[in-house]
Amino acid sequence: MASYLVSYDQHRDRDYTPIWTALRSNGAVRILESVWLLDISNTASEIRDWLRKTTRDEDSLVVVELKAGSGWATYNVQADGLTWLRQKVLA
Fold it and tell me: How crowded is residue 17: how many other Cβ atoms within 10 Å of its Cβ?
């Protein structure tokens, strides 16, 4: 299983329900308004393609794999996301 950071921008008709539902159904936690953290047994490309089904053509999406020991820092983030980072990606 790999850990990922997922972020998106919806540029028009901002209905976040489909992408939120997809992410939550796979155990993702939010750390910022449109930034989520996820453990899943898929590649970054597979996650992108899966989430593209919940967005429009003009929307933007990024999926970045996180590795144990990767450097990170936060400020004023959501508690669930911070807990996830501390457990999965030790500073």
Answer: 8
CATH number of 2-88: 3.30.70.2360
Dist CA 13 CA 74 (whole Å): 30
pLDDT, one tens digit per residue, over 25-46 is 999 999 999 999 999 999 999 9
Parse the chain into domains and list their residue ranges.
Answer: 2-88
3-state SS assignment for residue 31: strand
pTM over 0.85: yes
Tokens found for residue 14:
């901002």
- Counting Cα atoms < 13 Å in the Cβ hemisphere of 45 gives 0
**What is the C-alpha to C-alpha distance for residues 66 and 88, in angstroms, rounded to an integer?**
9
Per residue in 43-87, pLDDT (tens digit) is 999 999 999 999 999 999 999 999 888 889 999 999 999 999 998
